[in-house]
Amino acid sequence: MDESVLKAFGVSVTVFGGYFFLRTSPYRRFLAEHLRTDRFALHVLGFALLSYAFSVVIASITEREFKSGWVHDILGTAKEYTRLETPVIFTVLLAPILGIFDSIYVTLRMHRDLAVAQHSFWKRPLAKMRAAAAARFVLKCDDAATRLLYRATIYRKALMITLKSGKVYVGQPVGGLGDPSVRSHSIKIIPLYSGYRDAVTHKVELPTKYRMIVSAVQLREKEEPANPEDPLARDMADLKMKDGERVEIDMQDMGVVILWSEIQSLTIYDDGIYRAFQTMVPPPEKSRLTLFGKDGLLARLFLS
């Protein structure tokens, strides 16, 4: 094979090492994937150069200390079949190791976070490291919607969503922020209330109460919970009607999907704050003082 082709192949393998680092470090991947294509490429190239720099040092030590033996034989065989230089081979091997160490570092930094503490490192290490990466990303994120949705998901708080049409939904968000760096096109909630904003006072009225229906639902016993990430998951339950009849329903069908493009405002719903606002009387509208008209200044002077 031509020497220039081998060098180009070695460079491409080194760059792949940088991408391999991102795939094994969720936090770095979250930071990079929401960037523009050119900036993402620079991140991959930067991590590739970092891995290659460490690999050059390790390769020089290995070739000096292991001039014979099984390590020397393995490296010789790898170079013979791949036609790659020793630093390039070490880059592909070292990049995921550095990514794992970076994930462990992020997990230690975020070990007090509520979303991270609920996972056991020894039982579910990957889930704990991914939760720590998401928590770290949201902590550094300046997007208010992402931070609010993360807070509502972790604390299991209801969201109040006002649509551009004036329709209002209050409900629990379904699922979590698997990849907080990707802005989805929609959000799914389990509705508790629905209503509208008054056209004049802009107060929220919630006449439809889904919570009454949820309280009449009796979940069935099952061996293991349904996987929320499976779109075909089934969570069967019995709904008790007013006449005593029981109807079979699927809890997975109760969600409402709302497009982000249709959302006008988003906030965490608190029942106490909502009731406090409902008891407040809006101030009377101040009439504008005009010169003409039946309520104008001239009419008042004439009547007086």
Could you walk me through the main structural features you see in this protein, from its secondary elements to its overall organization?
- The chain has helices spanning 3-24, 26-33, 37-65, 70-82, 86-109, 114-117, 125-140, 144-154, 211-215, 271-279, 297-303, and strands at 159-163, 167-173, 186-197, 204-209, 217-219, 236-240, 246-250, 256-259, 263-268.
- The chain has two domains: 3-136, no CATH class; 144-210 and 254-279, Roll (SH3 type barrels), CATH 2.30.30.
- The chain is elongated.
- A hairpin with a 6-residue loop joins β3 (186-197) and β4.
- The protein is of the alpha+beta class and 304 residues long.
- α1 (3-24) packs across α3 (37-65) and α3 packs across α5.
- The strands form two sheets. Strands 1, 2, 3, 4, 8 and 9 form a six-stranded antiparallel β-sheet that branches.
- The N and C termini lie far apart (106 Å).
- Helix content is 49%, strand content 17%.
Give the gist of this structure.
This protein is of the alpha+beta class.
Q: Helical residue percent?
A: 40-55%
Strand fraction: 15-25%
Largest sheet: 6 strands, antiparallel
> What's the average pLDDT?
84
SSE series: HHHHHHHHEEEEHEEEEEHH
